[in-house]
Amino acid sequence: MPGENLSRDEARERAALLSVDGYDVSLDVRSAIGDAEGDGPRTFRSVTTIRFRCNEPGASSFADLIAPSVTAVSLNGRDLDPSEVFDGTRIALEDLAADNELVVDARCAYSRTGEGLHRFVDPEDGEVYLYTQYEPADSRRVFATFEQPDLKAPFRLEVRAPEEWTVWSNGTGERMEEGRAALPQKGGGGRPAGGVWRFAETKPISTYITCVVAGPYHYVTDRYERTFEDGTRLEIPLGALCRKGLAPHFDADDVFLVTKQGLDFFHDHFDYPYPFGKYDQAFVPEYNLGAMENPGLVTFREEFIFRGKVTRASYEGRANVILHEMAHMWFGDLVTMEWWDDLWLKESFADFMGTFANVGATRFKDAWITFANRRKAWAYRADQLPSTHPITADIRDLEDAKLNFDGITYAKGASVLKQLVAYVGQDAFLEGARRYFKRHAYGNTRLGDLLSVLEETSGRDMSAWARSWLQTAGVNAMTPQVLLSPEGRVDELAVVQEAAETHPELRPHRVAVGLYRRTGEGALERYARAEVDVDGPRTVVAELAGAEAPELVLVNDDDLTYCKTRFDETSLATLREHLGALTDPLARALCWSALWNMTRDALLPARDFTGLVLRFAGRESDIGVLQMLHAWAHSALVHYAAPEWRETGGRLLGEGALRELREAAPGGEQQLAWARFFAAVAGDEAGLRLLRGLLDGTEKVDGLDVDQELRWAFLQPLAAHGHADEGVLAAELARDDTASGKRHQVRCLAARPSAAVKAQAWAQVVESDSLSNALVEATIAGFAQPSQRELLAPYAEKYFAAIERIWAERSIQIGMDVVRGLFPSLRDSRDTLDATDAWLSAHEDAAPALRRLVLEARDDLARALRGQECDAAAGR
């Protein structure tokens, strides 16, 4: 990986020197089918022509390419010796002219890691599917390029593919006659006959959002039409595609519905018509991300096509991702950050706009509750790690960029933008966006470019806001202080704001403070509310003086700001007894989030949090919140509960989950959620026996449909506890002989409680690179089972011995998966913390991105140990 890195300084120097006029890229992917040639990686031919200018004739620069070999390089008609100018990652360009043409003929490798041009063979029918994924810098694995976001250019693409395939790209494609293809036949002997696809030239776009999808995909079409107030008409061809094996499950109509609703919403608010022609959405296998905003051809992980019954939260999540990627067509694709320092200019905006549009345009009117409960939890965790960073980050190189697709850039940035809308006003914010698009269309921007238009439209000075919220790190915590008069009314209510020692910034917040009391019917409802500007360590909320004494004070009611919420003693006591009586679903979600943050901060014992879940989660009406509570309760048991209480806690969670499963409405989504949670926490003989009975039909829960996805969810705990052997899992794969089934089987196989199984799984991931990215992920997920802590103990030492080699030898995506996924977090002892510190001390010169991953894992472990101490103290 070090040779593949690109620094910010190098990118700036190259951008100052070069301007790119256009790319012609010709690919021959007929080699994707049939037997591979030779012993090396399976390759395809890539011929790239780049037309570019140099403002200092005679200067030197370089192009980017990661490829096993280069056949020919020509610069301005002069043939260059590939062995002299190509080092495996870069092509040296000497003595540049004012106007230049570079032609590179290369053999590039198909990917099995989801980076570059990924090749997937469907085990169900043997069909081959291709797709590309480039962010932040993997287009250089497919064609020669200047791989940085600020060297935009139009692209013209041609692909020669197997005869029966269809090919898609950013622009509209046309199948050509063989004789009209631009790609010369040199080196193509012995290939099967193929079709040639040529695509319309794109608008100027960055290299990382170019895209190719090719194969026998199932393809569905529709059309979006819009007439604007001035009479102009816009027609956008819509397409949606997936593997043939998933076609029976593909609800393309719902995908198109959300797509049309989103296009209407963004056209209404952005006053800039969708600029990229068609709008295809491809759901592809073994995808590393949730989705990617390639203009005209958005790619998604195929898990968004649901093979079994899922809850409304899954559909809401998919809609949010569709709208997130659509927002990128403007924030990111039309106007792009200059360098990855300002990644927030696309990701924070898309994350905010995804929820903003979901609430404003679709059936998911409660999406801000999901945002408050789920997205912010991601941000709060990331903002307390040692690797936290300002939203506008210091990105030194591509490895930094890869790791900064994190909870700060996405969810904290979106939270801050939600506050910004309140600060400047929605109309001023949207007018600023409209001016931003028109002023910088097809260009690149920095922070100041956006702030300047917001200052124009709002009349506010944005510099102080930017310094506090975009250029500092860390999360503030707010706690109410309530003084009562002798008459039992509020004499003074203040909000105390605190910050971590490492990030002491106390930010200005606009917050709502809500006062809650129980009604005669027992409901816990808000009876008073005030908005106040919190600035500094203590702020008095004068508007609430004289109010009746509250049973619950909720700081940050309505979720107006980004902060951790704490409770005074009276409020916490009320929640312990009456949390389920809170009638407002957003207020409940905010209280649950605050309680979880207290658990992570060792202020609330894990057994208390799980007790609250068992007592009140069954009354939770929002299915997304319920599923989040299940995840948090499981994490509390695994990581934050005292070791001596885990068995008791697991039994209590299992009994409680089974009780709620049996009491839930038959066939409803709450029943499905409790069934999945029961499978996650079942560990005793009775629970495992019930799971076996539900699988073989000897047991039944009224209304519960045990479909194929639920069968695999039940099989994993059975495998992990030694109740489903290799033969049982092979039989289940025969029942579900699909790509999804294979991933489930691999995970279950690695979960079995055997030293030999763990050794085999470790070798497959750490000592070999034979597994694809999806199977690496599945193997890691199965390897680390909470019930197998002793079995996993020997791998802590092996982990620290292997990670530097892994980082050096594997792609950055696989390196991240291994370093994060195999960290010995289940060996949660001071010894593991000491071993981590020893590795960090002995490897101060290791790659900064690798050290960051280890530091983050160390912080999670230290936090878990503090939580266990808190929980143990509660048990004494």
Report the end-to-end length measured between terminal Cα atoms. Answer: 50 Å
Largest sheet: 8 strands, mixed
Strand order of the largest sheet: 5-4-7-2-1-10-13-12
- Radius of gyration (CA) equals 28 Å
Q: Provide the helix percentage.
A: 40-55%
Structural class by sheet pairing and helices: alpha+beta
**What is the overall number of helices?**
28
Global geometry: globular
Average the pLDDT over all residues and give the rounded result: 95
In terms of DSSP E residues, the strand content is 15-25%
Low-confidence stretches: 181-191
Strand segment tally: 28
Describe the structure.
The longest helix is centred in the last third of the chain and has 28 residues, at 848-875. Strand 8 and strand 9 form a beta hairpin. The chain has 876 residues and is an alpha+beta fold. Mean pLDDT is 95; it is low at 181-191. The chain starts with 7 loop residues before the first helix and ends with a helix. It has 28 helices and 28 strands.
Short summary of the structure?
The chain has 876 residues and is α+β, with helices and mostly antiparallel strands. The chain contains 28 helices and 28 strands.
Key terms:
alpha+beta, 8-stranded mixed beta sheet, 876 residues, 5-stranded mixed beta sheet
